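User: Please fill in residues for this 225-position structure.
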Protein backbone atom coordinates (compact mmCIF):
# COMPACT_ATOMS: atom_id res chain seq x y z
CA UNK A 1 0.00 0.00 0.00
CA UNK A 2 2.68 2.45 1.01
CA UNK A 3 4.37 2.60 -2.36
CA UNK A 4 1.17 4.03 -3.82
CA UNK A 5 1.16 7.08 -1.56
CA UNK A 6 2.44 9.94 -3.74
CA UNK A 7 5.58 11.81 -2.80
CA UNK A 8 3.95 15.11 -1.81
CA UNK A 9 1.83 13.29 0.77
CA UNK A 10 4.50 10.81 1.81
CA UNK A 11 6.45 13.64 3.40
CA UNK A 12 3.36 15.03 5.13
CA UNK A 13 2.17 11.65 6.45
CA UNK A 14 5.53 10.00 6.97
CA UNK A 15 5.24 9.47 10.74
CA UNK A 16 1.74 8.04 10.35
CA UNK A 17 2.87 5.28 8.02
CA UNK A 18 5.23 3.89 10.66
CA UNK A 19 2.57 3.54 13.36
CA UNK A 20 1.33 0.13 14.51
CA UNK A 21 -2.29 0.80 13.56
CA UNK A 22 -1.30 1.58 9.96
CA UNK A 23 0.77 -1.59 9.70
CA UNK A 24 -2.21 -3.59 11.00
CA UNK A 25 -4.49 -1.80 8.53
CA UNK A 26 -2.11 -2.62 5.70
CA UNK A 27 -2.06 -6.30 6.70
CA UNK A 28 -5.87 -6.35 6.96
CA UNK A 29 -6.38 -4.87 3.49
CA UNK A 30 -3.74 -7.15 1.95
CA UNK A 31 -5.47 -10.18 3.49
CA UNK A 32 -8.88 -8.99 2.28
CA UNK A 33 -7.53 -8.65 -1.27
CA UNK A 34 -6.28 -12.27 -1.12
CA UNK A 35 -9.65 -13.67 -0.05
CA UNK A 36 -12.22 -11.26 -1.52
CA UNK A 37 -12.71 -8.73 -4.26
CA UNK A 38 -11.89 -5.30 -2.80
CA UNK A 39 -12.66 -1.89 -4.26
CA UNK A 40 -11.04 0.28 -5.45
CA UNK A 41 -8.22 -1.68 -7.12
CA UNK A 42 -4.88 -1.25 -5.39
CA UNK A 43 -3.49 1.08 -8.06
CA UNK A 44 -6.40 3.49 -7.43
CA UNK A 45 -6.32 3.36 -3.65
CA UNK A 46 -4.70 6.78 -3.20
CA UNK A 47 -6.03 8.49 -6.35
CA UNK A 48 -7.33 11.41 -4.28
CA UNK A 49 -3.84 12.10 -2.93
CA UNK A 50 -2.19 11.59 -6.31
CA UNK A 51 -4.52 13.92 -8.21
CA UNK A 52 -4.49 16.64 -5.55
CA UNK A 53 -0.99 17.19 -4.09
CA UNK A 54 -0.85 18.56 -0.55
CA UNK A 55 0.26 22.05 -1.56
CA UNK A 56 -2.58 22.27 -4.11
CA UNK A 57 -5.44 21.41 -1.73
CA UNK A 58 -7.90 24.32 -1.68
CA UNK A 59 -11.08 22.33 -0.96
CA UNK A 60 -11.61 19.09 0.98
CA UNK A 61 -14.79 17.20 0.09
CA UNK A 62 -15.39 14.34 2.52
CA UNK A 63 -17.22 11.13 1.66
CA UNK A 64 -17.69 8.06 3.79
CA UNK A 65 -17.19 4.69 2.10
CA UNK A 66 -16.17 3.74 -1.46
CA UNK A 67 -18.80 2.53 -3.90
CA UNK A 68 -19.10 -1.24 -3.53
CA UNK A 69 -20.40 -2.35 -6.93
CA UNK A 70 -18.30 -3.42 -9.92
CA UNK A 71 -16.17 -0.84 -11.74
CA UNK A 72 -17.49 2.13 -9.75
CA UNK A 73 -14.86 3.11 -7.17
CA UNK A 74 -11.56 4.56 -8.35
CA UNK A 75 -10.31 6.38 -5.26
CA UNK A 76 -12.29 9.66 -5.33
CA UNK A 77 -15.37 10.17 -3.17
CA UNK A 78 -18.64 10.39 -5.16
CA UNK A 79 -16.85 9.80 -8.50
CA UNK A 80 -17.30 6.79 -10.79
CA UNK A 81 -15.32 5.60 -13.77
CA UNK A 82 -16.24 6.71 -17.30
CA UNK A 83 -19.05 4.62 -18.75
CA UNK A 84 -20.54 3.82 -15.32
CA UNK A 85 -23.99 5.18 -14.51
CA UNK A 86 -23.78 7.90 -11.83
CA UNK A 87 -25.14 6.60 -8.50
CA UNK A 88 -28.10 8.37 -6.82
CA UNK A 89 -26.06 10.71 -4.58
CA UNK A 90 -24.05 11.92 -7.56
CA UNK A 91 -27.24 12.36 -9.61
CA UNK A 92 -28.52 14.63 -6.84
CA UNK A 93 -25.25 16.56 -6.79
CA UNK A 94 -25.64 17.16 -10.52
CA UNK A 95 -29.22 18.39 -10.02
CA UNK A 96 -28.05 20.86 -7.38
CA UNK A 97 -25.15 21.95 -9.61
CA UNK A 98 -27.61 22.64 -12.43
CA UNK A 99 -29.81 24.77 -10.15
CA UNK A 100 -26.88 26.44 -8.40
CA UNK A 101 -24.44 27.31 -11.19
CA UNK A 102 -26.16 26.40 -14.47
CA UNK A 103 -24.26 23.11 -14.79
CA UNK A 104 -25.05 21.01 -17.84
CA UNK A 105 -25.42 17.39 -16.73
CA UNK A 106 -22.79 15.28 -18.55
CA UNK A 107 -22.98 11.69 -19.77
CA UNK A 108 -20.65 10.47 -17.00
CA UNK A 109 -19.84 10.77 -13.32
CA UNK A 110 -16.04 11.01 -13.64
CA UNK A 111 -15.00 13.82 -11.30
CA UNK A 112 -11.24 13.82 -11.93
CA UNK A 113 -11.33 17.39 -13.37
CA UNK A 114 -12.48 18.63 -9.94
CA UNK A 115 -9.61 16.85 -8.18
CA UNK A 116 -7.15 18.36 -10.65
CA UNK A 117 -8.39 21.84 -9.70
CA UNK A 118 -7.54 21.43 -6.02
CA UNK A 119 -10.48 19.50 -4.51
CA UNK A 120 -9.20 16.70 -2.28
CA UNK A 121 -11.99 14.14 -2.75
CA UNK A 122 -11.43 12.01 0.32
CA UNK A 123 -13.44 9.11 1.67
CA UNK A 124 -13.13 8.48 5.42
CA UNK A 125 -12.67 4.76 4.65
CA UNK A 126 -10.59 4.02 1.56
CA UNK A 127 -11.48 0.38 0.78
CA UNK A 128 -14.54 -1.87 0.82
CA UNK A 129 -15.27 -5.53 0.18
CA UNK A 130 -17.26 -5.98 -3.04
CA UNK A 131 -21.02 -5.61 -2.53
CA UNK A 132 -20.66 -5.21 1.26
CA UNK A 133 -20.99 -1.51 2.22
CA UNK A 134 -19.03 -0.39 5.29
CA UNK A 135 -17.24 -3.76 5.47
CA UNK A 136 -13.86 -2.08 6.06
CA UNK A 137 -14.93 0.49 8.64
CA UNK A 138 -13.25 0.47 12.07
CA UNK A 139 -10.06 -1.18 10.83
CA UNK A 140 -7.88 1.94 10.93
CA UNK A 141 -8.78 3.92 7.83
CA UNK A 142 -10.70 6.49 9.87
CA UNK A 143 -7.63 7.16 12.00
CA UNK A 144 -5.51 7.64 8.87
CA UNK A 145 -7.97 9.93 7.08
CA UNK A 146 -8.54 11.95 10.27
CA UNK A 147 -4.81 12.60 10.20
CA UNK A 148 -5.07 13.75 6.56
CA UNK A 149 -7.81 16.18 7.66
CA UNK A 150 -5.57 17.42 10.48
CA UNK A 151 -2.66 17.96 8.10
CA UNK A 152 -4.85 19.89 5.67
CA UNK A 153 -6.14 21.91 8.62
CA UNK A 154 -2.50 22.74 9.45
CA UNK A 155 -1.96 24.43 6.07
CA UNK A 156 -1.25 28.15 6.36
CA UNK A 157 -3.70 29.11 3.63
CA UNK A 158 -7.48 28.92 3.91
CA UNK A 159 -9.10 25.63 2.85
CA UNK A 160 -12.83 25.08 2.25
CA UNK A 161 -14.06 21.93 4.01
CA UNK A 162 -17.30 20.49 2.59
CA UNK A 163 -19.16 18.29 5.07
CA UNK A 164 -22.41 16.73 3.89
CA UNK A 165 -24.41 14.68 6.38
CA UNK A 166 -23.98 13.83 10.04
CA UNK A 167 -21.05 11.48 9.55
CA UNK A 168 -18.92 14.10 7.81
CA UNK A 169 -19.99 16.85 10.19
CA UNK A 170 -18.49 14.96 13.14
CA UNK A 171 -15.11 15.89 11.64
CA UNK A 172 -15.67 19.57 12.44
CA UNK A 173 -13.76 18.96 15.67
CA UNK A 174 -10.59 18.53 13.56
CA UNK A 175 -10.95 21.87 11.78
CA UNK A 176 -9.88 25.35 12.91
CA UNK A 177 -12.90 27.43 11.93
CA UNK A 178 -11.08 30.69 12.64
CA UNK A 179 -8.78 29.95 9.70
CA UNK A 180 -10.79 27.75 7.36
CA UNK A 181 -14.31 27.74 5.90
CA UNK A 182 -16.83 24.93 6.48
CA UNK A 183 -19.74 24.40 4.11
CA UNK A 184 -22.23 21.89 5.44
CA UNK A 185 -25.71 20.57 4.73
CA UNK A 186 -27.65 17.33 4.53
CA UNK A 187 -26.09 14.55 2.46
CA UNK A 188 -27.00 14.33 -1.25
CA UNK A 189 -28.23 10.76 -0.75
CA UNK A 190 -31.86 10.20 -1.82
CA UNK A 191 -32.60 9.49 1.86
CA UNK A 192 -31.70 13.02 2.93
CA UNK A 193 -31.25 15.31 -0.10
CA UNK A 194 -34.68 16.92 0.38
CA UNK A 195 -33.90 17.65 4.03
CA UNK A 196 -31.44 20.43 3.27
CA UNK A 197 -29.09 19.45 0.46
CA UNK A 198 -31.32 20.63 -2.36
CA UNK A 199 -31.29 24.41 -2.36
CA UNK A 200 -28.16 24.71 -0.21
CA UNK A 201 -26.12 25.97 -3.20
CA UNK A 202 -22.81 24.55 -1.96
CA UNK A 203 -20.99 24.87 -5.26
CA UNK A 204 -21.40 28.61 -5.62
CA UNK A 205 -20.59 28.91 -1.88
CA UNK A 206 -17.31 27.05 -2.43
CA UNK A 207 -16.38 29.41 -5.26
CA UNK A 208 -17.34 32.44 -3.20
CA UNK A 209 -15.07 31.27 -0.37
CA UNK A 210 -12.21 30.59 -2.81
CA UNK A 211 -12.66 34.03 -4.38
CA UNK A 212 -12.53 35.70 -0.95
CA UNK A 213 -9.30 33.80 -0.21
CA UNK A 214 -7.75 34.99 -3.48
CA UNK A 215 -7.78 31.48 -4.95
CA UNK A 216 -9.01 30.29 -8.36
CA UNK A 217 -12.64 29.26 -8.51
CA UNK A 218 -13.62 25.74 -9.53
CA UNK A 219 -14.89 25.19 -13.05
CA UNK A 220 -17.60 22.67 -12.14
CA UNK A 221 -18.58 21.80 -15.69
CA UNK A 222 -17.57 18.26 -16.67
CA UNK A 223 -16.99 17.23 -20.29
CA UNK A 224 -18.98 14.51 -22.00
CA UNK A 225 -16.80 11.44 -22.48
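Assistant: Residues filled in for all 225 positions:
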Amino acid sequence: MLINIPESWHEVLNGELEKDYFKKLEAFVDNERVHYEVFPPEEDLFSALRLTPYDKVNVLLLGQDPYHDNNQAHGLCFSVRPGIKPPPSLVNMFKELRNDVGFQIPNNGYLVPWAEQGILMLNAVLTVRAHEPNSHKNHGWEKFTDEIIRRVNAKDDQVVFVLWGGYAQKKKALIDTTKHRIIESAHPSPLSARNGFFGSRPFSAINSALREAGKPEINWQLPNL
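For context: DSSP finds eight helices and six strands in the chain.
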